[in-house]
Amino acid sequence: MPAPSDTQQAGLSASYKSPTDTKQFHYAIDTSGIATSETNNQLDKKSQTAYFGLLRASTKNLQDDINDFLTRKMDEDKKYTLDSSATKSKTKEELEEENYGEEVVDDDDTG
């Protein structure tokens, strides 16, 4: 496995895009403590294990952040949907009160 180069920092990235929102997620992986072979710039087994451990931890953190973000988005969407339906039903109730005791003619009746 080639070692992460000094000029290219190792990291994980993910992006979220919807019609109403975008979000970028990024986790840098600190590879400064991982030794490489001086002859072929390869990671030895111990360094590979350390690198994969860092990668796994960063993946878990990234996944947790994405899950938290998506949970908040779902809660916002649910709240918006509930607010919209409450407004619609309130409007319907208000119309019923206004028309109390009167005959209501539906507009879509084509008789």
TrEMBL record:
It comes from the Eukaryota. GO terms for cellular component: chromosome, telomeric region; nucleus. GO terms for biological process: tRNA processing. The keyword ATP-binding does not apply. The lineage of its organism: Eukaryota, Fungi, Dikarya, Ascomycota, Pezizomycotina. Keywords: Activator, Chromosome, Nucleus, Telomere, Transcription, Transcription regulation, tRNA processing. Component of the EKC/KEOPS complex that is required for the formation of a threonylcarbamoyl group on adenosine at position 37 (t(6)A37) in tRNAs that read codons beginning with adenine. The complex is probably involved in the transfer of the threonylcarbamoyl moiety of threonylcarbamoyl-AMP (TC-AMP) to the N6 group of A37. GON7 likely plays a supporting role to the catalytic subunit KAE1 in the complex. The EKC/KEOPS complex also promotes both telomere uncapping and telomere elongation. The complex is required for efficient recruitment of transcriptional coactivators. It holds the Pfam family Gon7. It is found in: Chromosome, Telomere; Nucleus. Belongs to the GON7 family. Residues 94-111 have a biased composition (Acidic residues). Component of the EKC/KEOPS complex composed of at least BUD32, CGI121, GON7, KAE1 and PCC1; the whole complex dimerizes. Residues 1-22, 73-111 are annotated as: Disordered. Its main location: nucleus. This is EKC/KEOPS complex subunit GON7. The keyword Transcription regulation applies.
